[in-house]
Amino acid sequence: MAASSYDRAITVFSPDGHLFQVEYAQEAVKKVVGVKGKDVVVLCVEKKSVPKLQEERTVRKICLLDDHVLMAFAGLTADARILVNRARVECQSHKLTVEDPVTLEYITRFIATLKQRYTQSNGRRPFGTSCLIAGFDMDGTPHLYLTDPSGTYTEWQANATGRSAKTVREFLEKHYSDEAVSTEEGAIKLVVKALLEVVQSGAKNVEVAIMRPNQPMRMLDIDSLEKIVGEIEKEKEEEAEKKKQKK
Amino acid sequence: MALESLHGVERYQHKWNEVQEEAALPEIGNFTNQYQLMMPPLPKAECQVGEYLVDETGRKMKLNYAHGTTTLGFKFKGGAVLAVDSRATSGQYIGSGNVRKIIEISPYLLGTMAGGAADCTYWNRVLAKQCRIYELRNRERISVAAASKLLANMVYQYKGYGLSMGVMVAGWDKKGAGLYYVDSDGNRMPGNVFSVGSGSLYAYGVLDSGYRWDMTDEEAYELGRRAIYHATHRDAYSGGIVRVYHIKEGGWVRISEQDSKDLHYAYAEGKTTTQ
């Protein structure tokens, strides 16, 4: 993308129909992976290495929007904080006026509409975040949605966003199947495996959140994570050995 | 132009424009925004319209807001039944004997009318518009709880400005039959049995003595019909045609529309034969 004169103002289209500012915003995001199983949804984010003196708990990339909605974001944390606040208020507003919890589609549409507004007004820049929104509707069906800085939203069975998302998505396309994610352990393993394709291996570099219908969100503790990462490493070694033997 | 105005020459066109302006309609706010109603030219503290009116001698006129009507609704095993009369009165004068007091909000939502006919009709129609928009946006039907809450919130904004309505919102949604009472004071209550209007006292008598959850459909229609008939018999402000509707899984169905006069003679016959 050549830096042309069309990329200064957000509200100006380029001759081939691009909004360059929005596309630049998509470069800002880092890596997030999400997977939807039969009755579980799993979100996994890359945890940046934290300086020694920093409190780990202040960097939270997975947030709870309501009892049944989880959001992981990639990109500018400050932008995401605003979105999360507005979404949390909207979840409660909806419960007040409609006497029902939000559906995943509704809250995704709300966040996406909010993002779109900032691509069509002057003096403001788009939100530099991509959000993966996961959870269960009232009737127990799981959903996984992805929104991007332009304000579009799409539903997925498994997806990744951020830098090198293409590699992760290809891995997921190869290895995602209904049986692989029919159990909770299967889903978690798939997600962690996918993220470890592009992230330095180690339980310290990933953060995993799990949600089941009508149950509170669970963050995997460091011990379970190390166990899973250990299993994945072992499987990788076994596969590498098999290949060697075949040759 | 400038030379003309200097010499005080008025062109014929000027007058033509003036006439046009007078004939032009004033900006009617609620064509574009249904929530933008014209306020009475009174400060809010004096906006209780009922207390403000005076007649030629200066005596304060009391507006009768007793909701001259009888409407009732109840839930039972087979869904929900709504029954209404059809008389509209302004004071002692019977304005109409054939008013449709059940408003069809959507194929599976009904609203009843009690109080000011204009208020009920207007706000029920705005509710119908909101329900349809909800359905299009969310690709699923609105629940009765949400629809009644929309109406209650709409009307609450005008609390104290003289709206008069006591409606029941009834319908079918994922949780089965729903019945809510909403009025212009801001009340909103779910319930199994309601009756609204000046004749509600008489209707409650018949309704409460005959009501059971596991009635058959026919028994339920007859109960509603009888309750309204007895109210029209004793209450001067209720009368006309007794309409009965049934709300079940596929939506609402119109059951019967019978003149209360005919019902009177039919029931009377039943009494004489048993004697």
Word description of this protein:
The complex is a heterodimer of chains A (247) and B (275). Chain A has 247 residues and is α+β, with helices and mostly antiparallel strands. Chain A is built from 6 helices and 10 strands; from the N terminus they run αββββααββββααββα. Chain A has a 5-stranded antiparallel β-sheet with strand order 8-1-2-9-10. In chain A, a hairpin with a 5-residue loop joins strand 6 (142-147) and strand 7 (153-155). The longest helix of chain A is centred in the C-terminal third of the chain and has 25 residues, at 222-246. In chain B, helix 5 packs across helix 6 (144-156) and helix 7 packs antiparallel against helix 8. Chain B has 2 domains: 15-63, no CATH class; 71-274, Glutamine Phosphoribosylpyrophosphate, subunit 1, domain 1 (4-Layer Sandwich). In chain B, strands 10-1-2-11-12 form a 5-stranded antiparallel β-sheet. A 5-stranded antiparallel β-sheet of chain B has the order 5-6-7-8-9, with helices on one face. Chain B is built from 9 helices and 12 strands. Chain B has 275 residues and is of the alpha+beta class. Helices cover 38% and strands 25% of the residues of chain B.
